[in-house]
Amino acid sequence: MTPPQPRYAAVKDHVRRRILSGEWPPDTKIPSENALGPELGVSRITVNRAFAELAQEGLLRKVQGVGTFVARARPRFGLMTIQDIAEEITARGMAWSCRVLRLGVTPAPAEAAAALVMAPGAPVPHSAILHLGDGAPIQREERWLRPGYAPGYLERDYRAETTFAHLVRAGNATAMEQSITAILPDAALARLLAVARDQPCLVIQRTTFTDGQAMTFSRLVQPANRFEIAGRATL
């Protein structure tokens, strides 16, 4: 006798059918956990688990404070939140991979030194990584860390996990601030990101803090036509 299907799996099948049938096309905001639960006769926790697994499978994407949407094949990065880029890429149905461009101690450039409140040229841990989705460049990520923060940072294999994942586990950030600007890439950056010189790229500069002290400074550059930045605030 076939055992009954778990309730969360039945919810997944229900949502998947509505997506694959075209009833819910990409970018459709689907019913909330609180709304779908009573409709299907299950708890909000059951729907939450189904939504989480469908997001991991790349069928759904959750936008903090906004809702749950049918995914499309373009990463979305939070305006007021920090996400793991590997999870963002895979949630859009693409395979994440990366190239480690640099990993070691380097003199802090003026911008990073100012953010970390250190002397320019002071030796700091530094990483430069190119993130890809289905082999296409999505983001060049550079990070500079205050020495001693997130032990083991320079010893990790970032082809297996992201710098973000390690920092979440080994660091203890309590706040962050970030800014977004637009640039036209120079020749080297255009080659790295596989874009034309006249293709706009967005630059996210982010500083994380622990108890008011700056611990990391990141500069993230990505082609504007390969991703979105979105967020919602309560006023």
Summarize the structure in words:
It is a single chain. This protein has 235 residues and is an alpha+beta fold. The protein has 2 domains: 64 residues, Winged helix-like DNA-binding domain superfamily/Winged helix DNA-binding domain (Arc Repressor Mutant, subunit A), CATH 1.10.10; 155 residues, Chorismate lyase-like (Chorismate lyase, 3-Layer(aba) Sandwich). 27% of the residues lie in helices and 33% in strands. The chain contains 7 helices and 10 strands. The strands form 3 sheets. The chain has a 6-stranded antiparallel sheet. The protein has a two-stranded antiparallel sheet with strand order 1-2. The protein has a two-stranded parallel sheet with strand order 3-10. Helix 1 crosses helix 3 and helix 2 packs across helix 3. The radius of gyration is 20 Å and the shape is globular. It starts with 6 loop residues before the first helix and ends in a 5-residue tail after the last strand.
CATH superfamily of the largest domain: Chorismate lyase-like
CATH topology of the largest domain: Chorismate lyase
Distance between the termini: 55 Å
Determine the oligomeric state from the structure: single chain
The CATH architecture name of the largest domain reads 3-Layer(aba) Sandwich
The main sheet orders its strands as: 4-5-6-9-8-7
Q: Percent of residues in helical segments?
A: 25-40%
Give the key terms:
235 residues, 2 domains, Arc Repressor Mutant, subunit A, six-stranded antiparallel β-sheet, two-stranded antiparallel sheet, Chorismate lyase
